[in-house]
Specification:
33 strands, 10-stranded mixed beta sheet, 35% helix, binds 6-O-phosphono-beta-D-glucopyranose, 8-stranded mixed beta sheet, 798 residues, alpha/beta, 22 helices
Length: 798
């Protein structure tokens, strides 16, 4: 006990002397004014604060206690003091010491730290006014000048604008004293919400006062990417390009689920949670031009923005998404959803990104992350092309993959490191804070024994938050996200997020059981899962033994056959059935006549067909249109244009096998006397045996229309025609369509219906009798063929 008191006195004496000395020497150098710093964590008892922030501020305090600054720490929150203060102090007591501090000294510093901390309820304007007053008076009372105020907002994003406004109104310090406000992601949900949030914050805080944190930028390996590239530029400059790099992979694998965070996570999903920010930041650091001064925030930003502006636009086919099996149950529980609610939020994503710059053109960059995977691991790997063909001794180092791995931590290695294949070059040691690892344990990193790499690691491992907190304290902004950076990133990700909004994720079981079901492959600019899904679904639709999982359900709908599954499997099944029909027709008659509709439902089918084109008899297939809008075929509205863009342009088939509807004749659209409908009918009669298509693919609209046969159109007026001009209630009103007669002559008719928005229609249709004039789809009855309804679970079950 005596020892502790004595040490405390020594520490205090030491602090006083050092404060004076530091003050003098700092002022002499014109450095920032020393004095009192108030730290306020708003959201002080939340998860993040308890896990990382207090720890980070304790390290800051421990490092600065002898530097001439004095501190006070305020934990703020909405709860009253008597409830929250004990929780705060429990968290504070748990902070651990920096590695370079002796146990004895740490105990003293910690005791001081606890004394300097207090809880304050921060709910109302008055609470903030009282805090503001206290922050000014407290240093005065102690006879110390104020140096700065640091507010850390660890609160849900919707509260940012309000808290920032209160800080601005009541807690702004006097002239000459700095104000720094730290914000945690999420900074918005997409481009426009991020823009709105930026504008709201800008009305309370100046840009230089805001520190938007991305904790990945505080990870030691991530912050060493640019210095590593600089130090090793002699080796890297010649090979850091599309000619030498095969691909780049930026990966964050997690074993944890999203339990406990569902109210946040379900609105965000994996792309917004970690890809839009953490992994994208790593991407920019790997690919940006090296700034002359690595710590010049403006130059770093300028070079980052160049990369953002060169990123190729992403569409849904650039990504695969998945969701772990028990996620939906967690959503039901945490969001109080009824059974049968299906969240489409992805917990896994694999995305392919390209940069449209001479240096990187055509070089794939894979970004991938997922919850409930087999291991916790984060890394960025640059895989170089290896042009050596090994005839013998495949084990020798020059036959191995050439790669540089920025290993963020965890995984087999368990420590952050930069690994360079020995067949590339020996990296320079960057500075005294890094060392080369020489011990060679029997470990594999990404498939290669670590003895094949040169390995660099930091001398002392530091927590990302502690690192960034120390930078905020120093007023260094180069590792923070500026508003421009943020908006550029959202600008890039938002179109993909919107195009995936309704896409059903592949369900995966979680952990090692995922096997290879999340592996994905690159097909040109597209990404697909490498293996067909073995589907795990959350509900047992059969009503039979609970928990049973199955792929596709067969049943009856409106007295016809029905196939039902999750949309992804449904499409696979429909594509298989279509291919079987094509092969049969080609075997029997040398031709396959396929009539396709437009609309959004068949897009996924077209995509699947395009991807598996090599096994399909396209050479002998004739493609016809079920219906067409009376617009030029080159317009985006045109059904033919849709079929062309999503299917025809990707498959190899003779041009003369493609039969668009002649909606444009004599430079006008769908004019009766031009006889377009008749012309198409004649073409069908000449080429299609008995005018019986082998396969007709239909959809059904919310009003029960199919092809371009709408409720209220007098279908009997079509008589014996196979093709007719029709009217749609929606624009463009004029249409050309196969008639019921033409459709009902077909050998196989498939009606594809997908998505929750079709659930009501499917329910209604299951009840109505055949009334083709009110519900045209109910007039589909192939006279000597078959009709199959393909309905996904969303449409079937809502
Ligand atoms: C956070 C995400 O930003 O990053 C979490 O919200 C994720 O969902 C975490 O688990 C990953 O960070 P780290 O440092 O553990 O890789």
């Amino acid at each position: 006990m005596l020892k502790v008191v004595w040490a405390a006195l020594l520490l205090m004496a030491n602090v006083c002397v050092q404060r004076v000395q530091a003050n003098e020497s700092q002022e002499a150098k014109g450095a920032p004014k020393l004095g009192h710093v108030s730290v306020v964590i708003v959201g002080a008892t939340g998860d993040l604060a308890k896990k990382y922030l207090w720890q980070g501020f304790f390290h800051l305090y421990a490092n600065q206690v002898s530097s001439g600054y004095t501190f006070s720490f305020y934990g703020g929150g909405l709860s009253p003091k008597d409830k929250a203060a004990p929780i705060l102090f429990e968290a504070l007591k748990r902070v651990s010491c920096p590695r370079d501090l002796s146990e004895e000294r740490c105990a003293l510093v910690k005791e001081q730290f606890l004394k300097l901390a207090e809880y304050r309820q921060l709910k109302t304007v008055e609470d903030y006014q009282a805090l503001g007053k206290h922050l000014s008076e407290h240093p005065k009372g102690e006879g110390i000048a104020e140096a700065g105020r640091l507010f850390y907002l660890s609160v849900p994003a919707f509260a940012y604008a309000d808290v920032a406004e209160k800080i601005n109104a009541s807690c702004r310090p006097a002239e000459g004293v700095w104000l720094r406000v730290v914000l945690e992601k999420p900074f918005g949900h997409d481009f426009s919400s991020a823009q709105l949030l930026s504008a709201q914050l800008a009305s309370s805080l100046r840009d230089e006062e805001m520190y938007r944190i991305d904790h990945y930028l505080g990870k030691q390996v991530v912050s060493k990417i640019l210095p590593f590239r600089r130090e090793n530029s002699k080796h890297l400059d010649p090979i850091w390009n599309k000619h030498h790099i095969e691909r780049v992979e930026i990966v964050l694998k997690e074993t944890l689920d999203a339990k406990g965070r569902i109210p946040f996570y379900d609105q965000y999903g994996v792309i917004r949670d970690v890809i839009q920010n953490h992994l994208t930041e790593v991407l920019t650091l790997l690919t940006m031009g090296l700034p002359a001064n690595l710590s010049d925030a403006k130059e770093v930003l300028k070079n980052k923005l160049k990369i953002f502006s060169a990123l190729e636009h992403l569409e849904s086919h650039c990504a695969v998404i998945g969701q772990y099996k028990s996620y939906n149950e967690e959503v039901e529980q945490e969001l109080n959803k009824t059974k049968g609610h299906y969240s489409l939020t992805p917990t896994f994503a694999g995305i392919m990104v390209y940069i449209n710059m001479a240096q990187y053109e055509g070089m794939p960059i894979i970004l991938t992350s997922g919850k409930m995977l087999d291991e916790r691991l984060g890394y960025a790997r640059i895989l170089f092309k290896n042009d050596i063909f090994c005839v013998q001794k495949h084990d020798s180092v020059h036959c191995k993959p050439k790669q540089i791995i920025f290993y963020f931590g965890h995984g087999a290695l368990q420590y952050p490191a930069i690994l360079v294949s020995k067949n590339l070059f020996k990296p320079d040691l960057m500075d005294t804070e890094w060392k080369e690892v020489t011990e060679q344990k029997d470990i594999n990193v990404l498939g290669m024994p670590i003895s094949n790499y040169y390995i660099l690691t930091p001398m002392v491992q530091r927590e990302a938050y502690a690192e960034l907190i120390s930078q905020i304290f120093q007023g260094r902004k180069d590792s923070f996200i500026s508003a421009e950076n943020l908006l550029a990133s959202w600008g890039f990700w938002t179109p993909l997020l919107h195009s995936l909004a309704k896409a059903p994720p592949r369900i995966y079981p979680g952990g090692v059981e995922n096997g290879n079901m999340l592996d994905f492959k690159l097909l040109g600019r597209k990404v697909t899962f490498a293996n067909d899904a073995l589907v795990f679904i959350n509900q047992d639709f059969t009503g039979g033994s609970g928990g049973q999982s199955f792929q596709v359900m067969q049943g009856k709908y409106r007295n016809n056959d029905m196939v039902s599954a999750w949309s992804e499997e449904l499409i696979v099944r429909l594509a298989d059935d279509l291919q079987a029909a094509a092969e049969k027709a080609v075997r029997e008659s040398g031709r396959f006549h396929l009539a396709l509709s437009g609309g959004s439902s068949p897009l996924a089918l077209f995509q699947r067909l395009a991807q598996h084109q090599y096994t399909f008899p396209w050479r002998d297939t004739h493609v016809w249109m079920v219906d067409e809008r009376c617009v030029p075929l080159t317009e985006l509205d045109s059904n033919f244009r849709t079929v062309h863009d999503h299917l025809l342009q990707h498959v190899k088939m003779p041009y003369f096998n493609i039969h668009p509807m002649p909606v444009q004749m004599n430079q006008r659209l769908c004019v009766e006397e031009d006889g377009g409908a008749l012309l198409y009918e004649r073409e069908i009669s000449q080429l299609v045996n008995g005018s019986r298509f082998h396969f007709v693919l239909l959809g059904v609209g919310h009003d029960g229309h199919t092809a371009s046969l709408f409720p209220g159109s007098k279908l009997e007026a079509h008589g014996n025609s196979l093709v007719a001009l029709t009217e749609s209630p929606a624009k463009p009103h004029q249409r050309m369509s196969l008639t019921l007669r033409a459709i009902n002559r077909a050998q196989k008719v498939a009606i594809l219906t997908m998505g929750k928005s079709k659930h009501e229609l499917i329910t209604q249709l299951s009840r109505v009798k055949d009334k083709p004039n009110s519900w045209p789809v109910t007039g589909i009855h192939p006279t000597s063929g078959t009709l199959v309804w393909y309905i996904d679970y969303d449409a079937l079950l809502g």
